[in-house]
Amino acid sequence: MSNGDDEPADASEEVDTDDAAAADEPEATAPTLPDEPTEESLTEYLEEIEAALDDAETEADLDDVEALLDDAEEALSDADLPEPDEDDEDADDPRGELEDRIAELREGVEDARGPYAEDVVEAIETAASTLEDTEWTADGRADAADAVETFVDAAAEAVDDAVEADAIETDPDAADADDGADANADTDGESDAAADRIAVLVDALDAVAAGIGDADLDPDDDAETIAALLEATDALEDGLEDAEEWDDLETHEQLRAQGYYDVLGHYKDYPVEWAALKEHEARGNVDMILLALDSLQSEFMERHCLEAFERMGKRGKTEDSVEELLGRAGKRDEFAIRILGKMAAEEAVETLLEYVDEDSNPQLQKATFKALGEIGSADAVGPLAEKLEMENDHVRPLAARALGLIGDTRAIDPLADALAEDDSDDVRAAAGWALRQIGTREALEAVAEYADERSFIIQTEAEKAQATLDAAATPA
Questions:
Q1: Where is there biased composition of kind Acidic residues (predicted)?
Q2: How far apart (Å, rounded) are the C-alpha atoms in residues 15 and 282?
Q3: Separation between Cα atoms, residue 160 and residue 152, nearest integer Å
Q4: 71, 291, 326, 448: least surrounded by Cβ within 10 Å?
Q5: Could you tell me which residues come within 8 angstroms of residue 223 by beta carbon, excluding any fewer than 6 positions away?
Q6: What dihedral do alpha carbons 274, 279, 281, 283 form, nearest 10°?
Q7: SS3 of residue 14 by DSSP
Q8: Mean pLDDT lowest among 186-190, 211-215, 424-428, 446-450
Q9: What is the mean pLDDT of residues 261-273?
Q10: Please, which residues bridge with residue 136 across strands?
């Protein structure tokens, strides 16, 4: 301001227009708690508190409003108010209505608070978890990287030096280098590259969250900064939401991206998934068969995938395939049990032994006995030997043959007893066959003595045992 003579105006003459305006405004009167609270006076008091809430501009103002509500709640508890008529559902309840009004105002206080820097950090941590927990496509990872980089730049601009704008390297080639890779890729290098890329993005978000925490933002003084950060986190969330996940793809698109169809040239079998399955079986690509089994939710493809494992036998045995089949075997899946036997999967013995005594389910027992025999489990000798005396003469032969496949000499005596005493020729013949498989002199002699047996199938086993003994006795 000038006084006309280019002389500085006297300081005493300077007037702060803002202060003058403020001086003209009447001071707000704090709500006054009624001396003798009644329904009317408490209602009026709460209306004054509502006005104070509407005028609140800072966290301190909101603290004052909350203190007033505490006073109102205490006054209400001491107030002598009429009680509603219990027999009249429509009767007024002054105390209940006032309690509801206080609760509503408390919610208003909470809604008016913040936002806080902690809200921003929490949103960033949620985004980091989304990055780690989501299975992205290659395009999805690139889009996620763009969203994170944009967020880092926005956060750096909002908080100045509290966040480094170069918290993440902007390297588009790194996002595209692992094209086609995902958590199920059968190339370890591709999977590692994808995981490394996600780790870089997560580290970037962690760095931003730490920078915001260190900035010590005040919800009043830094309200604009916090609002800008929350806007940036909203954009980050939208960016991650729009980025492509594997679950967004159709099944055939997922399989194509993971190389399932790469083995196909000219093919005659349809559907093409079956044609590819046959080629993967021929090449021993266990991971691809498991991929088809998991992805192609049809009974047709499930059956063919399992049949492929059955034909492959030990070639199809990997840690992952055994885990898949054990999960099915744990649900009494006889097909899976049969396959575990073909794989000679020792890992299945503990599960299979639980089914040995399932006398009410002979089909399950048959599959179990054969699988234990093919696995060659010594732990199964005792339980299987006991089954040589079970009632079902359709299952007893399977127990005998399983003991023969295992080949443990501890089974000689129970098998010899079955050969001598069982009422079923099928069981006796199976016991004779099992003794021949064990193949010791004692076992062979136990069979050979039945060469004159009336039953042809038993006589045949005895003759084969005798021939083996004769061959062993003949000098070379």
A1: 1-27, 66-92
A2: 95
A3: 11
A4: 71
A5: 115
A6: -160
A7: coil
A8: 186-190
A9: 71
A10: 245
Instruction: Check residue 134 and give its pLDDT.
Output: 86
Q: Which two tokens stand for residue 440?
A: 């010791």
Which neighbouring-strand residues pair with 245? Answer: 136
Torsions phi, psi for 471 (to 5 deg): -65, -35
- pLDDT for 317 equals 96
Q: Which of 310, 184, 203 is nearest to 247 (CA)?
A: 184
The amino acid occupying position 349 is V
The Cα 410–Cα 338 span in angstroms is: 25
DSSP SS3 for 206: helix
In the block, tokens 């002598």 appear at 80
| Burial grade of 247 (CB within 10 A; 0-12, 13-18, 19 or more) | exposed
pLDDT confidence tier of residue 170, bands split at 50, 70 and 90: very low
Q: Are 458 and 467 in contact (CB under 8 A)?
A: no
Tens of pLDDT, residue by residue over 83-120, are: 877 766 777 888 888 999 999 998 998 888 878 888 89
CB 191 within 8 A of CB 259: no
Q: How far is CA 396 from CA 89, 281, 304, 385, 426, in A?
A: 75, 35, 31, 10, 9
383 cis-preceded (ω within 30 degrees of 0): no
Given a cut of 90, is residue 265 above it in pLDDT?
A: no
CA gyration radius, the chain: 41
| pTM (global) more than 0.70 | no
Nearest-5° Cα angle at 234, 228 to 237 = 145
CA angle 315–317–321, rounded 5-degree value: 130
* Mean pLDDT score of the chain: 84
Q: Are 230 and 119 in contact (CB under 8 A)?
A: yes
Instruction: Measure the CA–CA gap between 133 and 62, rounded to whole angstroms.
Output: 39
Q: Are the C-beta atoms of 182 and 194 separated by less than 8 Å?
A: yes
Q: For residue 77, what are its two tokens?
A: 């508890």
Q: What is the dihedral of CA 407, 411, 412, 416, to 10 degrees?
A: -120
